[in-house]
Amino acid sequence: MEPLYESKISCICCETIFITTRVRPSFKKATAVDSDFCGHYSKGTNPDFYVVRICPKCGFASTENGFASLTESQKQSYNTRIGLNWRGQSFSGERSAEQAMMSYKLALLTGQATDAKDRVIAGILHHIAWLYRYENNETEEKRFLTFALEAYIRVFETEGISLNNAKLMYLIGELNRRIGQDQEAVKWFSRVVNDKKIMDAAMIRACREQWQLIREESEARRLSLSSSSSQIVSSL
Ligand SMILES: [Zn+2]
Q: Which of 98, 212, 213, 219 is the most interior residue, by most CB within 10 Å?
């Protein structure tokens, strides 16, 4: 069976019916998942490449988590900022890594033009960071992890701790850790571990593990520093 199949959807901006390519559920199984939920797929088809649906007529790019419909002013804002410059391009069929990147960047622009929810924007930014990770482009990956982190923090500031936000808090900690802000990371991990109201056992465990990892890494750094300074002393 082919991993890809086609389905028809209607554009919420211009109402054009278009074909979008999807990945069959049986091909969506990751062979490895990173600590910030980035999936790795060995079979060649990365389902994340097909998350963004793009209208070939007006360029409106969205994910399933986006708006169900648009207001007139959102449509106008989209058309003024992006739609009118859209030259028509089809994203159906198999997508290369480059096309996947373009699809997420279009989704980001679309989200910004229509004032999408921070949760949606954060998810898109995080996905862009993953695409750079697949390419081993560490500088761009960290840049987008930082943008995603800022958006996740805005989500947390709006929704707060009252909702079941342990996963969000874990992610804020983990993205801080990944961009080298260990102290901030520990602050978030310890909040999840120590807050008695949080019941999400998997996220409490994940926070403990990543907190431990920070301790081990800083201990390793301390040891290598002290061994290199003792080498300097002994070479004097
Ligand atoms: Zn459209």
A: 213
Can you give the residue ranges of every domain in the chain?
1-120, 165-236
- 189 CA from centroid of ligand 1 (Å): 42
Which of the four pLDDT bands, split at 50, 70 and 90, describes residue 163?
Answer: low
Burial label, 123 (beta-carbon count in 10 A; 0-12, 13-18, 19+): buried
CA 102–ligand 1 middle distance (angstroms): 17
| CA 28 – ligand 1 centroid, Å | 27
Q: Tell me what the mean pLDDT of segment 147-172 comes to.
A: 90
Q: What is the pTM of this model?
A: 0.92
pLDDT digits (tens, 9 = 90+) for 52-80: 999 999 999 999 889 999 999 999 999 99
Question: How many other C-beta atoms are found inside a 10 Å radius of the C-beta of residue 185?
Answer: 23
Residues 6 or more apart whose CB falls under 8 angstroms from that of 1 comprise: 24, 26
The maximal CA–CA distance of the chain, rounded, in angstroms, is: 76
